[in-house]
Amino acid sequence: MSDTFLTDDSNLPAGLLAGPGDGLPLAGYELTLPDPFGIEMPWEVLGAMIQGKSSIDLTSMPVYTREEAKEFVASYGFDLDLPEDQAEMEAYFIEAVHFIEHRFLTRSVDWQALGEPLSPMEKIPLSITANRNVLDLLLLASQPGHPNRPWACALLKVIHTLVYIQNSPLYKHHAQASEAILSRFREVLLPQSDGTILLKGRRARELKLYAFEAKHHKPRESILIKLLCKKENVAENVWDLVGVRLVTFHPAEALLAVDILREQKVILFPNVIPSRSRNTLVDFEHFQALYEEALSEYKQGQRSLQSLQDFFHTADSILPKEGPHNANPLSSPQYRSLHITCRHLLRVKSGAGHTETRFAFPYEIQMLDKASYLDSKIGDGAHAHYKQRQLIAARRRVLGPLLKP
After folding, report:
1. Helices and strands in the chain, H and E counts
2. Cα separation of 383 and 398, whole Å?
């Protein structure tokens, strides 16, 4: 038998004291108190902290009084007694409601055609959204028996993610980083009259590219959906806020492109993040062996320089062996590319004294050959299908039990 708040308890949430018609999420509901002896363990929360489970995957919140909720938010980083903090938190609340309703609850998407359950409703219950109070959400999310608890949990997941986006130095300095990074690429790229791009190296080395694309800006909503799919769920783990894509005519030319960028100091190898490198485009070791053999023949006068350069046009024998190359479960196995994540040391001036600080800003480099690039525009490997899989994964994670029949 659980303990409950008494009506004269000083910690009683405002919603519990209100009448049934006031629209507050806790109106008329008897809140459950935690173990009065203080000896029960919040195993799920502890497990998340110790075993690496994301906080947005928790099914319960150990917050039972309004004072606890306020302390929780203060420790989180917001003093709700300050008007600016209160306004910022309310803005996150409003944005989260709009996002869930327009992306996850919309009936404009044929969810059943995608193999997904229909949205439970088109709008979040007004009894939850009218108040715009994050303290009520925390209390509601801590009540397993409350019918609107899943809605509170869904909103808190999105609000938490928005806080990380808004307060990430990566997001704040996005525009400055984009210009600093992309300007380095522009210095070595020369557009040609036939629509191709010339990648200029040193000592007359050059490579004709089929295409070059730059990502100057990643929309906030795209970042939000991506983070809602990630276990870490923090903005510092979005690596492609800034990105470039180089499309070569042949797979092995991607290796030549990387070497020219290295030679031109556009990419510095110490700044590459090793765990983020992905290669499903070229069998590196096999091509290295073939090229070294051809290079030896050139040095012995048995092969011309042009023949050696043409070696990068080889395609059939250098595709990578099939295997678990890609760590992103949402990517299509048909998508072949070479990915490098690099860091740029960004210099930022801030404050009245214009104090300069530096921090590493990550960006992503994608290499595709022409065939892979064209394939990525259609079929299962198309970017639109990838974004669709992201949306479905984020929807399942946020709405959770609301999608169950």
Report:
1. 15, 8
2. 22
Eight-state DSSP code of residue 142: T
Q: Give the DSSP H or E segment for 16.
A: helix 14-17
**C-alpha span between 145 and 348 (Å, rounded):** 49
CB 327 within 8 A of CB 229: no
Report d(CA 101, CA 68) in Å as an integer: 29
Structure tokens at 95: 């944005």
Residue type, 58: L
CB atoms closer than 10 angstroms to residue 78? 19
Nearest to 212 by CA among 229, 200, 226, 195: 195
Compute the distance between CA of residue 97 and CA of residue 124 in angstroms, rounded to an integer.
7
Helices of type H across 100-219: 126-129, 134-141, 149-166, 169-172, 174-186
Structure tokens at 400: 């959770």
122 close to 105: Cβ distance less than 8 angstroms: yes
Q: State if pTM tops 0.85.
A: no
Cα–Cα–Cα angle for 66, 83, 133, rounded to 5 degrees: 35
What's the angle, vertex CA 192, arms to CA 280 and CA 254, rounded to 5? 15
CA angle 328, 329, 330 (to 5 degrees): 90
List, for residues 123-178, the tens digit of each pLDDT value.
999 999 988 899 999 999 888 888 899 999 999 999 999 998 888 888 888 888 99
Residue 246: its H or E element: strand 243-248
Do 158 and 100 meet the contact criterion of CB atoms below 8 Å apart? yes
User: Do 148 and 213 contact (CB within 8 A), yes or no?
Assistant: no
CA torsion sign for 78, 81, 86, 88 is negative
Tokens of residue 287, six digits: 């091509």
Query: Per residue in 194-252, pLDDT tens?
Result: 999 999 998 888 999 999 999 877 788 988 998 898 776 554 567 788 999 999 999 99
DSSP character string of 151-165 = HHHHHHHHHHHHHHH
Which parts of 333-382 fold into alpha helices (H)? 370-375
Q: Which of 120, 145, 140 lies closest to 129 in space, CA to CA? A: 140
What are phi and psi for residue 161, nearest 5 degrees?
Answer: -70, -40
